[in-house]
Design brief:
There is one protein chain. With about 350 residues, the chain is mainly beta. It has helices spanning about 5-10, 150-155, 190-195, 200-205, and strands spanning about 10-15, 35-40, 55, 60-70, 75-80, 85-90, 95, 105-110, 115, 120-125, 130-140, 145-150, 160-165, 170, 210, 225-230, 250-260, 265, 270, 275-280, 285, 290-295, 300, 310, 315-325, 330. It has a 7-stranded mixed sheet, with no helix packed on it. The radius of gyration is 20 Å and the shape is globular.
């Protein structure tokens, strides 16, 4: 790493440098769920283990995380209070809804995106033949706590992890004691679940998925060889960007940006937080005169207001998240000012 690139490098989380937590959640030692790795890439996420490593702490208005699981590994049924969006980077995944994972199912492949609404029990399993990685976006700077299906909490008993009402996970196998002034989380009552939980069957679940090969609306004005499509978010007339198939309020928008080999964007700046994830290919990034190469699985956050340019020698497929339901249009700059 060159000395003059230290500022930009500090905003890049490379796939090979991801620091996993294998006890991020209450089900992390339950048989069938005990081989998963969880990552907090930007923001604290919803991890319950206070020792979970957060790569970038700067608030963005959303959180970025990840999950890596071997074949057959299950993430147990739960729901959230804010948006949860998954982009499949690798592997083959079955997402299942319902308290007992029996209401709906959809199988997703690399390049697919899913946004399951709040208060819907969801879980996911790697049903492929190889380890897989899910890239996740959670709404808000504080996405709140996970609400687990009652069976998940019951099945976790006896495996050394204790979840407290404060949201903190205690590992009793590491000789950590359960504090007397912080009660242990109890399963939600049936009455409470009936008041808040929403059901989604297989047909409806299919409507919250955007396949990697779907025909999507295109944001006009991109240079030759660059295509930006709307994956998630409402129509934004200021850009102008057409509505996506997932056109409800999330607090952020997601775009699929593809660069053909040899293409480049003009120099520009944005006034909203922007995070770029490289799904495939290689990305050459220039930010305020600093340069970096990003490979598949790498994540970078662009400073608000910074001048940046994207290019690719080999071609690149990017998943881009921007803060707000209607991000401001980019300010295009002359070559002389870049």
């Amino acid at each position: 790493m060159r000395a003059d690139n230290q500022r930009l490098e500090s905003r890049i989380v490379r796939y090979g440098d991801l620091i996993p937590c294998t006890t991020a959640f209450i089900d992390a030692r339950t048989p069938g769920s005990d081989a998963k790795e969880n990552f907090t890439i930007i923001g604290p996420g919803v991890a319950e283990n206070p020792d979970q490593h957060v790569h970038i702490t700067e608030p963005h208005g959303f959180n970025i995380g990840g999950a890596r699981q071997p074949p057959g590994c299950l993430n147990s049924q739960h729901f959230h209070e804010t948006a949860e969006v998954f982009f499949v980077h690798s592997g083959r995944w079955a997402f299942r809804t319902g308290e007992h994972a029996d209401e709906g199912e959809v199988v997703m492949e690399p390049g697919d995106t899913i946004s399951i609404p709040v208060h819907v029990f969801r879980g996911f399993e790697n049903v492929g033949a190889e380890p897989g990685f899910l890239y996740a976006v959670l709404g808000g700077d504080d996405p709140g706590r996970v609400v687990w299906a009652p069976d998940v909490l019951e099945n976790a008993r006896g495996h050394g992890l204790v979840l407290l009402e404060s949201g903190r996970l205690i590992d009793t196998l590491s000789r950590h004691s359960v504090p007397k002034d912080d009660p242990v989380v109890q399963p939600e009552t049936r009455a409470a679940l009936e008041r808040i939980v929403r059901q989604i069957d297989t047909t409806t679940l299919g409507t919250v998925v955007v396949r990697g090969g779907s025909r999507l609306g295109t944001v006009p004005g991109a240079p030759a060889g660059v295509v930006e499509q709307t994956v998630l978010g409402e129509a934004n007339l200021s850009e102008p960007a057409p509505a996506s198939p997932l056109a409800w309020s999330h607090g952020f928008v997601c775009r699929r940006v593809r660069l053909a080999p040899g293409s480049r964007t003009p120099a520009l700046r944005r006034q909203d937080a922007e995070v770029i994830f490289v799904h495939a290919g290689g990305l050459e990034l220039e930010v305020e005169g600093e340069h970096a190469h990003l490979a598949p699985g790498d994540t970078v956050t662009i400073p608000v207001g910074a001048v940046r340019r994207l290019s690719s020698r080999t071609g690149a497929d990017l998943f881009v998240t921007r803060a707000g339901n209607a991000p401001q249009p980019a300010e295009l700059l002359d070559e002389a000012t870049s």
